Every structure is written in C-alpha cells, then in structure tokens.
C-alpha cells in the first residue's frame, strides 16, 4: 500500500484546511486509517483514526474541531481541520494498518506540512 498526502499549507489561526490521503491497492476498505502529526521537538501523536466500519476516535486536543472520513470508492481518507490553532502546526502523516493497535507498524505516507500562524 502506498499513501500520498496532500492539502497541507499555511493558514491563519481560526482557519480551515482539508488533508487528503490517497492510497493504492484494492483492499483499502479493510484497513484502519489514521492521521498522526509531529511538531518540531515533540513526539508523534495520533490525531484521528477511522476503522473499516466507520468507527472514529480522536485525540482530545482536536475533538470538535477535526473530522476524519473515508471514501472507499476513491481509496482516500480525509482530515477536515477547522478552528485551527498555532499549536496544530506540525507535519501530518497518514497511516494504514490492520488494526488500531498495530497501525503504527503499517504503512505511512511522506507527510504534509501544516502551519498555523497566530
């Protein structure tokens, strides 16, 4: 599985961005898909995850502001980010795995930079 992220960029605080992650392969629908982020000097953290049944999970820091979704017909997972804050600045990575517990040992995209200015 190859993952390619897009949609990052520079936005002012309070603004919105939508990230997309396009996956190759015919079995996209069976994977757990997640978005992670890593800010400079910080550890990578899980932002949001969606499983094959559409069940969702979010980091507390993004609940109510970010929405993860998937379109299995397009082999794509999205992250809609609203009310962005400077602390959301990070490289955002898409990941795919067999399960939530193993997603970090699965497949990864190259990352896309999100910068939120104050």
Question: Which strand-content bin applies to the residues?
Answer: over 45%
Portion of residues within helices: under 10%
Whole-angstrom Rg: 13 Å
How would you sum up the major sheet? Answer: 7 strands, mixed
Order of secondary-structure elements: EEEEEEEEEEE
The number of helical segments is 0
From the N-terminal CA to the C-terminal CA, the straight-line distance is 37 Å
User: Which structural category do the helix and sheet elements fall into?
Assistant: mainly beta
Which spans have pLDDT < 50 for at least 5 consecutive residues?
A: none
Instruction: Look at the structure and give the mean pLDDT.
Output: 95
**Shape label:** globular
DSSP, total strands: 11
Defining key terms:
118 residues, mainly beta, 7-stranded mixed β-sheet, 4-stranded antiparallel β-sheet, 11 strands, 0% helix, globular
Plain-language structure description:
With 118 residues, this protein is mainly beta. It is 0% helix and 50% strand. The chain is built from no helices and eleven strands. The strands form two sheets. Strands 2, 4, 5, 6, 9, 10 and 11 form a seven-stranded mixed β-sheet that branches. A four-stranded antiparallel β-sheet has the order 1-3-8-7, with no helix packed on it. Strand 7 and strand 8 form a beta hairpin. The relative contact order is 0.31. The model has no long low-confidence stretch (mean pLDDT 95).
